[in-house]
Amino acid sequence: MPLTTFKSTRLRSVFIVYWFLLGYIIAALIWWFIALTSQNRLMANHDISVLQPSDTGYHTTVAAIRERERRKETQYIGEGAVFFLVILAGAVFIFRAVRRQLKLGQQQQHFMMAITHELKTPIAVTKLNLETLQKRKLDDEKQQQLIHRSIQETNRLNSLCNNILLAARMEENKYTATREELDFSALVNQSLQEYKSRYPERRFESNLEAGISLQGDPLLLQLAVNNLLDNAHKYSPRTAPVTVSLQSSKEKILLTVTDEGKGIPDSDKKKIFQKFYRIGNKATREAKGTGLGLYLTRKIAREHRGEVYVTDHSPTGSNFVLELGS
Ligand code: ADP
Question: Which of 37, 89, 226, 236 is positioned for an S-S bond with 259, CB 3.0–4.6 A?
Fold first, then answer.
């Protein structure tokens, strides 16, 4: 049986058991309420039946018995309602927790598939290029082309490994970010120059304020900037420009990476920062990725008293804003 069929069958049985138990508990609660109120009525009727209508104060005693019956009934309704609400709150809580867990499991499975693919492709391409260089006598230009492509693939492999390792270490709180005075403008510019030479066919435009410095971890910040540049490149047409701007004010530093791709639907603007989350659209399916980049970028931003968010770029595309405390 394929793994996904097995998983969805197991998932269905988990939910069947859950709904059965919840239904059983609620039915038992309703049954308990009916039994108690009818017992209450029987007891009141019995108490009235032993009275003699000729007794003095007969009507007052009957009224008192009925009043007691009503009070008890109100008490049962109150207690039943509280039980019902507690059970409902518990059921909603468990349902959400289980659903979250199952979703994470599913995303992890997609991640493993993506990662296998991501690791295998650059290795296969580089191996093929090296074998071609070894076996054939190629002219200088062809050789340079193959070497350039191999370096590109190795760079991709490198940033992928960095992302995975860092995600694992940050998750276990094993990574301690350093705090050193650094020139953030120079760091952004360096990343930008690397991307320009890696993708010479792409137009990168920039408006970087010089000399912005901050206290931070250069490795983490470089990764965050690279992730944003990488996405802008991956999710927008090759002919459209990617614009990077950097400004600072008294309280914060703003780095904006703008692309002219399809943009991000409102419903996904928060979700894309979750671990392993990838939008289910054509552009994402065609681009390589693991769903870790923005999750890490958010962690890194928060590590630097900042935040990362996305807004729409008009007429098309997105602005990713990395906000850092200055
Ligand atoms: P991935 O490795 O899939 O790129 P990310 O965490 O970097 O993972 O991004 C999560 C998802 O957000 C991507 O899979 C993609 O669907 C969407 N996304 C990120 N950046 C952009 C962008 N600039 N334009 C459109 N969609 C984007």
Answer: 236
